[in-house]
Amino acid sequence: MKITLNKVDVEDLEVQNFVKFRSKKHKLTGKQSVTQLVSRAENFSDPNSKFKNSDLNELSKRGFLDELISGIKTGKEASVFLGKNPDGFVAVKIYTDLRVRSFKRDASYREGRFIGDSRIEKAIEQGSQKGLDAHQILWVQEEFRQMKHLYGHGVKVPKAIAVSGISLVMEFIGDGNANAAPRISDLKMEKDEAEEAFRQSVQNLKLIVRSGRVHGDYSAFNILWHNEQAVVIDFPQVIEFKNNPNADAFLERDARSLCKSFMKQGIRADEGKVLREVREH
Fold first, then answer.
1. 84 φ, ψ (degrees, to nearest 5)
2. d(CA 189, CA 205)
3. pLDDT single digits (tens) 172-200
4. For the segment 123-143, what is each residue's pLDDT rounded down to a tens digit?
5. Which domains does the chain have, with CATH numbers?
């Protein structure tokens, strides 16, 4: 089924599901504070467990996560934490349980995705307990898969490191003092800097399209600015041109959202021109 996407307001699309912690570094005080933020918490009889959460403990056992240090950003669908492993700082994205969140227009993103089990696919469509569990895991796994794909095609994205359940470990984009890079939408840039950030954002979008993908939620709200480089984030909704008949409609919306979100920086771009540029091969 092919859908027609109405014009959407960028702020309604991104901001409503993405709010910051009140302080830049919201310290986590022990295991219980983590479980309060992650509804999928579990109790373990093993007193040596670092976390009261099965996904985080699995990542810890595999050597990808030693501790959670502080909160970076939180939202209705996922929260991002500053973590640490033997290699240094990492970002840990932990999804909210599917039963207490909702993905708007999720079916249009999922169309064409390979599941490989007709019973699971049916359970997802019916919204059964089994289907919700499978849907949740598949959504997070898809983000991990798409991050690796885009990174391999030269798109400026955080490097995907590991995934377990509804938790994902990735490269931390920030400085050596654990200060996370800001989103472009949170900055007030000088003219030259804004123009360069927009140029890089268009280039990243072009590389995404060249790799056969559409971001699906592309704007300054999902692009970090670090060391004068635009770094794209947030990928569970990424779709593939070859599998999803809605891809062109989502790409048109991505170009429109990108241009609109950069108006805050004084950039007045022609979305039609941007769309033509990113479609060129």
1. -145, 140
2. 20
3. 999 999 999 999 999 999 999 999 999 99
4. 445 455 554 555 566 778 889
5. 18-171 (3.30.200.20), 184-279 (1.10.510.10)
- pLDDT-based confidence at 85, cuts 50/70/90? very high
Nearest to 38 by CA among 72, 69, 90, 77: 77
The label of the residue with tokens 């979008």 reads: 205
Q: What are the helix (H) ranges across the chain?
A: 10-14, 31-37, 54-61, 106-110, 118-126, 129-152, 191-210, 247-261, 271-279
CA dist 171 and 74 (Å) reads 17
Percent of the chain past pLDDT 70, that is, above it, reads 68
Longest CA–CA separation in the chain, Å: 59
What is the residue type of 22?
R
pTM score > 0.85 for this model? no
Amino acid at 200: Q
- Please report, for residues 44, 99, 255, the alpha-carbon distance to residue 48 in angstroms, rounded to integers and kept in the order given: 9, 30, 49
Q: Phi/psi class of residue 176: alpha, beta or left (left: φ > 0; alpha: ψ in -120 to 50)?
A: alpha
Tokens for 78, please give them. 């996922």
Q: Alpha-carbon distance 155 to 106, whole Å?
A: 24
Question: How far is 7 from 268, CA to CA, in rounded Å?
Answer: 18
Residue 229 and residue 220 in contact, taking contact as beta carbons nearer than 8 Å: no
Report yes or no: 68 and 83 within 8 Å, Cβ to Cβ: yes
Burial class (CB in 10 A: 0-12, 13-18, 19+), 82: buried
> Is the Cβ–Cβ distance between 173 and 231 less than 8 Å?
yes
